[in-house]
Write a structure and sequence with these properties.
The complex is a heterodimer of chains A (150) and B (227). Chain A has 150 residues and is an alpha/beta fold. Chain A has helices at residues 3-11, 80-84, 92-100, 123-139; strands at residues 34-39, 43-45, 58-62, 68-70, 106-107, 110-114, 144-148. Chain A has one domain (3-148). Chain B has ten helices and three strands. Classes of the chains: A alpha/beta (150), B mainly alpha (227). Strand 7 (144-148) of chain A pairs parallel with strand 1 (14-19) of chain B, so a sheet runs across the interface.
Chain lengths: 150, 227
Protein backbone atom coordinates (compact mmCIF):
# COMPACT_ATOMS: atom_id res chain seq x y z
CA UNK A 1 0.00 0.00 0.00
CA UNK A 2 1.30 3.49 -0.77
CA UNK A 3 2.03 5.99 1.95
CA UNK A 4 -1.03 8.17 1.37
CA UNK A 5 -3.41 5.23 0.93
CA UNK A 6 -1.97 3.74 4.11
CA UNK A 7 -2.58 6.94 6.05
CA UNK A 8 -6.07 7.44 4.65
CA UNK A 9 -7.02 3.88 5.60
CA UNK A 10 -5.57 4.47 9.07
CA UNK A 11 -7.54 7.71 9.45
CA UNK A 12 -10.77 5.76 9.01
CA UNK A 13 -9.96 3.80 12.19
CA UNK A 14 -9.36 6.84 14.40
CA UNK A 15 -11.94 7.91 16.97
CA UNK A 16 -13.88 11.00 15.94
CA UNK A 17 -15.61 13.44 18.27
CA UNK A 18 -19.34 13.90 17.85
CA UNK A 19 -20.81 17.39 17.67
CA UNK A 20 -24.42 17.22 18.76
CA UNK A 21 -25.25 20.61 17.31
CA UNK A 22 -23.95 22.05 14.08
CA UNK A 23 -23.02 25.70 14.38
CA UNK A 24 -23.54 27.28 10.98
CA UNK A 25 -22.75 30.95 10.51
CA UNK A 26 -23.95 32.90 7.50
CA UNK A 27 -20.99 35.12 6.60
CA UNK A 28 -21.00 38.56 5.06
CA UNK A 29 -20.53 38.39 1.28
CA UNK A 30 -16.99 37.26 0.44
CA UNK A 31 -16.03 40.57 -1.25
CA UNK A 32 -16.67 42.20 2.13
CA UNK A 33 -15.20 39.48 4.32
CA UNK A 34 -11.91 39.51 6.19
CA UNK A 35 -10.37 36.06 5.67
CA UNK A 36 -7.84 34.21 7.84
CA UNK A 37 -6.07 30.91 7.37
CA UNK A 38 -6.03 28.36 10.18
CA UNK A 39 -3.60 25.55 9.44
CA UNK A 40 -2.71 22.35 11.27
CA UNK A 41 0.76 22.19 9.71
CA UNK A 42 2.43 23.37 12.92
CA UNK A 43 3.90 26.33 11.06
CA UNK A 44 5.95 28.71 13.11
CA UNK A 45 8.37 31.50 12.40
CA UNK A 46 12.10 30.83 12.17
CA UNK A 47 13.77 31.58 15.47
CA UNK A 48 10.54 31.07 17.40
CA UNK A 49 10.05 28.04 19.64
CA UNK A 50 8.50 25.22 17.65
CA UNK A 51 5.68 22.86 18.53
CA UNK A 52 6.23 19.92 20.88
CA UNK A 53 5.05 16.39 20.18
CA UNK A 54 1.25 16.29 20.67
CA UNK A 55 1.28 20.04 21.27
CA UNK A 56 -2.25 21.36 21.90
CA UNK A 57 -1.29 25.03 21.66
CA UNK A 58 -1.35 27.44 18.74
CA UNK A 59 0.71 30.27 17.31
CA UNK A 60 -0.40 33.46 15.60
CA UNK A 61 1.30 34.17 12.27
CA UNK A 62 1.48 37.81 11.11
CA UNK A 63 0.12 38.46 7.63
CA UNK A 64 3.52 39.49 6.22
CA UNK A 65 5.46 36.50 7.59
CA UNK A 66 6.98 34.14 5.03
CA UNK A 67 9.87 32.82 7.14
CA UNK A 68 7.82 29.81 8.13
CA UNK A 69 9.11 26.49 9.42
CA UNK A 70 7.07 23.31 8.96
CA UNK A 71 7.02 22.07 12.54
CA UNK A 72 4.69 19.07 12.24
CA UNK A 73 6.12 15.94 13.92
CA UNK A 74 4.58 13.29 11.70
CA UNK A 75 6.88 11.69 9.09
CA UNK A 76 3.85 10.54 7.12
CA UNK A 77 3.25 13.29 4.59
CA UNK A 78 5.08 15.10 1.82
CA UNK A 79 7.14 18.12 2.88
CA UNK A 80 8.87 18.85 -0.42
CA UNK A 81 5.78 20.61 -1.77
CA UNK A 82 5.93 23.09 1.10
CA UNK A 83 9.66 23.57 0.54
CA UNK A 84 8.99 24.41 -3.10
CA UNK A 85 5.96 26.64 -2.44
CA UNK A 86 4.52 27.38 0.99
CA UNK A 87 1.20 28.27 -0.63
CA UNK A 88 0.48 24.59 -1.19
CA UNK A 89 -0.03 24.40 2.58
CA UNK A 90 -0.58 28.02 3.58
CA UNK A 91 -2.07 29.95 0.64
CA UNK A 92 -1.27 33.41 1.96
CA UNK A 93 -0.08 34.79 -1.38
CA UNK A 94 -3.24 33.51 -3.05
CA UNK A 95 -5.34 35.35 -0.44
CA UNK A 96 -3.38 38.54 -1.12
CA UNK A 97 -4.15 38.13 -4.83
CA UNK A 98 -7.85 37.59 -4.13
CA UNK A 99 -7.90 40.74 -2.00
CA UNK A 100 -6.15 42.73 -4.75
CA UNK A 101 -8.82 41.45 -7.16
CA UNK A 102 -11.52 42.45 -4.64
CA UNK A 103 -12.82 38.87 -4.57
CA UNK A 104 -12.36 38.87 -0.81
CA UNK A 105 -12.69 41.91 1.38
CA UNK A 106 -9.36 41.75 3.18
CA UNK A 107 -6.60 39.44 4.30
CA UNK A 108 -6.55 39.11 8.07
CA UNK A 109 -3.62 40.71 9.86
CA UNK A 110 -2.98 37.48 11.80
CA UNK A 111 -3.42 33.80 10.96
CA UNK A 112 -3.33 30.72 13.17
CA UNK A 113 -1.22 27.60 13.30
CA UNK A 114 -1.99 24.43 15.26
CA UNK A 115 -0.19 21.07 15.25
CA UNK A 116 -2.13 18.40 13.42
CA UNK A 117 -0.99 15.47 15.53
CA UNK A 118 -3.32 16.00 18.48
CA UNK A 119 -4.19 13.61 21.31
CA UNK A 120 -7.06 11.37 20.22
CA UNK A 121 -9.71 13.04 22.39
CA UNK A 122 -8.89 16.52 20.94
CA UNK A 123 -10.34 17.90 24.20
CA UNK A 124 -7.93 20.81 24.61
CA UNK A 125 -8.27 22.27 21.10
CA UNK A 126 -12.02 21.72 21.30
CA UNK A 127 -12.63 23.36 24.65
CA UNK A 128 -9.63 25.57 25.37
CA UNK A 129 -7.05 26.52 22.75
CA UNK A 130 -9.44 26.37 19.78
CA UNK A 131 -11.93 28.82 21.31
CA UNK A 132 -9.01 31.02 22.45
CA UNK A 133 -7.62 31.23 18.92
CA UNK A 134 -11.10 31.93 17.54
CA UNK A 135 -11.51 34.79 20.05
CA UNK A 136 -8.22 36.29 18.86
CA UNK A 137 -9.40 36.19 15.25
CA UNK A 138 -12.77 37.64 16.22
CA UNK A 139 -10.99 40.54 17.90
CA UNK A 140 -9.15 41.11 14.61
CA UNK A 141 -12.48 41.34 12.78
CA UNK A 142 -12.17 38.03 10.93
CA UNK A 143 -15.37 36.89 9.20
CA UNK A 144 -14.23 33.76 7.36
CA UNK A 145 -11.64 31.10 8.15
CA UNK A 146 -10.07 28.76 5.62
CA UNK A 147 -8.77 25.62 7.33
CA UNK A 148 -5.84 23.85 5.71
CA UNK A 149 -4.75 20.44 7.00
CA UNK A 150 -1.48 18.58 7.17
CA UNK B 1 -8.86 20.41 11.19
CA UNK B 2 -12.51 19.42 10.88
CA UNK B 3 -12.82 19.65 14.67
CA UNK B 4 -11.47 23.21 14.59
CA UNK B 5 -14.07 24.10 11.96
CA UNK B 6 -16.82 23.29 14.47
CA UNK B 7 -14.99 25.27 17.16
CA UNK B 8 -14.46 28.40 15.05
CA UNK B 9 -17.99 28.28 13.69
CA UNK B 10 -19.38 28.06 17.22
CA UNK B 11 -17.36 31.20 18.00
CA UNK B 12 -19.18 33.08 15.23
CA UNK B 13 -16.72 32.74 12.34
CA UNK B 14 -17.83 31.09 9.10
CA UNK B 15 -15.46 28.32 8.05
CA UNK B 16 -14.58 26.24 5.07
CA UNK B 17 -12.19 23.34 5.58
CA UNK B 18 -9.96 21.76 2.99
CA UNK B 19 -10.19 18.09 3.89
CA UNK B 20 -7.50 15.59 2.92
CA UNK B 21 -8.88 12.56 4.78
CA UNK B 22 -12.36 11.82 3.48
CA UNK B 23 -13.30 9.29 6.21
CA UNK B 24 -12.49 11.88 8.87
CA UNK B 25 -14.46 14.63 7.11
CA UNK B 26 -17.44 12.30 6.80
CA UNK B 27 -17.36 11.38 10.48
CA UNK B 28 -16.60 14.81 11.98
CA UNK B 29 -18.87 16.58 9.45
CA UNK B 30 -17.61 20.18 9.64
CA UNK B 31 -20.01 22.91 8.48
CA UNK B 32 -18.42 23.22 5.01
CA UNK B 33 -15.59 21.12 3.61
CA UNK B 34 -13.98 20.64 0.24
CA UNK B 35 -12.30 17.27 0.07
CA UNK B 36 -9.20 17.12 -2.13
CA UNK B 37 -7.76 13.73 -3.07
CA UNK B 38 -4.30 15.27 -3.28
CA UNK B 39 -0.96 14.05 -1.89
CA UNK B 40 -0.96 14.39 1.89
CA UNK B 41 0.93 17.54 2.85
CA UNK B 42 -0.40 19.41 -0.19
CA UNK B 43 -3.93 20.59 0.67
CA UNK B 44 -3.86 23.14 -2.19
CA UNK B 45 -2.91 20.36 -4.59
CA UNK B 46 0.03 21.58 -6.62
CA UNK B 47 3.08 23.58 -5.49
CA UNK B 48 4.14 26.30 -7.88
CA UNK B 49 0.76 26.28 -9.65
CA UNK B 50 -1.17 29.41 -8.59
CA UNK B 51 -3.89 28.71 -11.13
CA UNK B 52 -4.69 25.33 -9.63
CA UNK B 53 -4.48 26.71 -6.10
CA UNK B 54 -6.95 29.45 -7.03
CA UNK B 55 -9.27 26.81 -8.46
CA UNK B 56 -9.21 24.96 -5.13
CA UNK B 57 -9.87 28.19 -3.24
CA UNK B 58 -12.71 29.23 -5.56
CA UNK B 59 -14.45 25.88 -5.10
CA UNK B 60 -13.92 26.06 -1.34
CA UNK B 61 -15.16 29.63 -0.96
CA UNK B 62 -18.18 28.86 -3.15
CA UNK B 63 -19.40 26.62 -0.31
CA UNK B 64 -19.89 29.78 1.79
CA UNK B 65 -22.93 30.56 -0.36
CA UNK B 66 -24.71 27.47 0.93
CA UNK B 67 -27.41 28.16 3.45
CA UNK B 68 -27.38 24.91 5.36
CA UNK B 69 -24.94 22.20 6.24
CA UNK B 70 -22.95 20.19 6.79
CA UNK B 71 -21.66 20.49 3.24
CA UNK B 72 -19.00 18.11 1.95
CA UNK B 73 -17.94 18.23 -1.66
CA UNK B 74 -14.93 16.84 -3.47
CA UNK B 75 -12.60 18.57 -5.88
CA UNK B 76 -13.08 16.88 -9.27
CA UNK B 77 -9.37 16.32 -9.88
CA UNK B 78 -7.50 13.51 -8.15
CA UNK B 79 -3.74 13.94 -7.82
CA UNK B 80 -2.04 10.71 -6.90
CA UNK B 81 1.25 10.49 -5.08
CA UNK B 82 4.08 8.89 -6.97
CA UNK B 83 6.10 5.92 -5.88
CA UNK B 84 9.02 6.89 -8.15
CA UNK B 85 11.98 8.72 -6.67
CA UNK B 86 12.72 12.15 -8.08
CA UNK B 87 15.81 12.26 -10.30
CA UNK B 88 18.45 14.03 -8.29
CA UNK B 89 22.22 13.86 -8.77
CA UNK B 90 24.24 14.05 -5.58
CA UNK B 91 27.53 15.94 -5.88
CA UNK B 92 30.53 13.98 -4.63
CA UNK B 93 32.42 15.16 -1.58
CA UNK B 94 35.62 13.07 -1.96
CA UNK B 95 36.37 12.29 1.65
CA UNK B 96 37.95 8.85 1.71
CA UNK B 97 37.92 8.70 5.51
CA UNK B 98 34.19 9.33 5.86
CA UNK B 99 31.44 6.75 5.60
CA UNK B 100 29.33 6.86 2.42
CA UNK B 101 26.45 8.53 4.26
CA UNK B 102 28.64 11.17 5.87
CA UNK B 103 30.44 11.88 2.60
CA UNK B 104 27.10 12.12 0.81
CA UNK B 105 25.71 14.53 3.40
CA UNK B 106 28.71 16.81 2.86
CA UNK B 107 28.24 16.54 -0.89
CA UNK B 108 24.78 18.11 -0.78
CA UNK B 109 25.71 20.91 1.61
CA UNK B 110 26.12 23.53 -1.10
CA UNK B 111 22.68 22.74 -2.50
CA UNK B 112 21.18 22.96 0.98
CA UNK B 113 22.87 26.32 1.58
CA UNK B 114 21.62 27.67 -1.75
CA UNK B 115 17.96 26.82 -1.12
CA UNK B 116 18.16 28.05 2.44
CA UNK B 117 19.51 31.35 1.16
CA UNK B 118 16.87 31.56 -1.54
CA UNK B 119 13.93 30.68 0.75
CA UNK B 120 15.31 32.61 3.70
CA UNK B 121 14.30 29.82 6.05
CA UNK B 122 14.85 26.13 6.75
CA UNK B 123 12.83 23.52 8.62
CA UNK B 124 16.06 21.84 9.79
CA UNK B 125 16.80 22.68 13.42
CA UNK B 126 14.61 20.63 15.72
CA UNK B 127 17.70 19.31 17.55
CA UNK B 128 20.56 19.79 15.08
CA UNK B 129 21.39 22.26 12.35
CA UNK B 130 23.02 21.46 9.03
CA UNK B 131 26.47 21.38 10.62
CA UNK B 132 25.29 18.58 12.89
CA UNK B 133 23.99 16.26 10.16
CA UNK B 134 27.25 14.30 9.49
CA UNK B 135 27.80 13.57 13.19
CA UNK B 136 24.14 12.59 13.66
CA UNK B 137 24.46 10.15 10.76
CA UNK B 138 27.51 8.65 12.43
CA UNK B 139 25.45 8.04 15.57
CA UNK B 140 22.73 6.30 13.54
CA UNK B 141 25.44 4.20 11.87
CA UNK B 142 26.59 3.12 15.34
CA UNK B 143 23.06 2.03 16.22
CA UNK B 144 22.70 0.20 12.91
CA UNK B 145 26.01 -1.57 13.62
CA UNK B 146 24.73 -2.85 16.96
CA UNK B 147 25.37 -0.13 19.52
CA UNK B 148 22.62 0.20 22.11
CA UNK B 149 20.34 3.09 21.34
CA UNK B 150 20.53 4.20 24.97
CA UNK B 151 24.32 4.14 24.93
CA UNK B 152 25.04 6.39 21.95
CA UNK B 153 25.29 10.18 22.05
CA UNK B 154 22.13 10.99 20.12
CA UNK B 155 21.43 14.73 19.85
CA UNK B 156 18.45 15.69 21.96
CA UNK B 157 18.00 12.00 22.87
CA UNK B 158 15.13 12.02 20.40
CA UNK B 159 15.27 9.70 17.39
CA UNK B 160 12.24 11.28 15.72
CA UNK B 161 13.69 14.79 15.95
CA UNK B 162 17.13 13.74 14.71
CA UNK B 163 15.79 11.83 11.73
CA UNK B 164 13.43 14.72 10.97
CA UNK B 165 16.40 17.07 10.76
CA UNK B 166 18.49 14.72 8.63
CA UNK B 167 15.64 13.98 6.25
CA UNK B 168 14.64 17.63 5.98
CA UNK B 169 18.25 18.64 5.28
CA UNK B 170 18.31 16.14 2.42
CA UNK B 171 14.84 16.94 1.12
CA UNK B 172 15.41 20.69 1.05
CA UNK B 173 18.66 20.07 -0.86
CA UNK B 174 16.79 17.73 -3.23
CA UNK B 175 14.25 20.41 -4.08
CA UNK B 176 17.24 22.56 -5.08
CA UNK B 177 19.01 19.78 -7.01
CA UNK B 178 16.01 18.37 -8.89
CA UNK B 179 15.43 19.90 -12.28
CA UNK B 180 12.08 20.96 -13.68
CA UNK B 181 8.80 21.70 -11.91
CA UNK B 182 8.23 20.67 -8.28
CA UNK B 183 8.36 16.90 -7.87
CA UNK B 184 5.23 14.82 -7.34
CA UNK B 185 4.05 14.04 -3.83
CA UNK B 186 6.40 11.62 -2.03
CA UNK B 187 8.89 11.56 -4.93
CA UNK B 188 11.40 13.34 -2.72
CA UNK B 189 10.60 11.05 0.21
CA UNK B 190 11.17 8.07 -2.11
CA UNK B 191 14.50 9.55 -3.19
CA UNK B 192 15.64 9.97 0.41
CA UNK B 193 14.70 6.51 1.64
CA UNK B 194 15.48 4.54 -1.53
CA UNK B 195 18.34 6.36 -3.22
CA UNK B 196 20.48 7.92 -0.51
CA UNK B 197 22.96 6.43 1.93
CA UNK B 198 21.44 8.57 4.66
CA UNK B 199 17.97 7.16 4.04
CA UNK B 200 19.31 3.64 4.16
CA UNK B 201 21.15 4.49 7.37
CA UNK B 202 17.96 5.80 9.00
CA UNK B 203 16.05 2.65 8.03
CA UNK B 204 18.88 0.40 9.26
CA UNK B 205 19.05 2.22 12.60
CA UNK B 206 15.27 2.03 12.88
CA UNK B 207 15.32 -1.73 12.31
CA UNK B 208 18.15 -2.16 14.81
CA UNK B 209 16.20 -0.24 17.44
CA UNK B 210 13.14 -2.36 16.81
CA UNK B 211 15.25 -5.48 17.29
CA UNK B 212 16.71 -4.01 20.48
CA UNK B 213 13.20 -3.72 21.87
CA UNK B 214 13.09 0.07 21.87
CA UNK B 215 9.64 1.52 22.63
CA UNK B 216 7.46 1.53 19.51
CA UNK B 217 7.27 5.32 18.99
CA UNK B 218 11.05 5.72 19.34
CA UNK B 219 11.76 3.72 16.18
CA UNK B 220 8.48 3.64 14.26
CA UNK B 221 8.21 7.38 13.67
CA UNK B 222 11.75 7.65 12.33
CA UNK B 223 10.25 6.99 8.89
CA UNK B 224 6.82 6.92 7.23
CA UNK B 225 4.68 4.04 8.44
CA UNK B 226 4.61 2.22 5.10
CA UNK B 227 8.40 1.96 5.14
Amino acid sequence: MSGDADMRAYSATLPAPVFAQLAFVTPVPLPEATVAIVTSAALHRAGEDGFGQADTGYKMIPRAARDLVLGHWSPNFDRAGFTADLNVVYPIDRLEELAAQRKIGAVAERHVSFAGNQPDDVATIRHDTGPAAAAELRSDGVDVVLLTPV
Amino acid sequence: MCVLAHVFEAAGIATVALASMLPVAEKVAPPRALHGEFPLGRPLGRPGDPEFQHDVLARAFALLDRTDGPVLESHPEVIEETTDAVSCRIPAAYDADASPAVEESRGIRNAYDRIRERRGVTSVGRVIDADGVPAALEVLEEIAAGAGYKEVDLPGKNTIAVTHDIRTYYEEAAVELAEGPPADGRAVEAWFFERTEAGRTVLAAREAMREQGAPFPFWFYMAPGHR
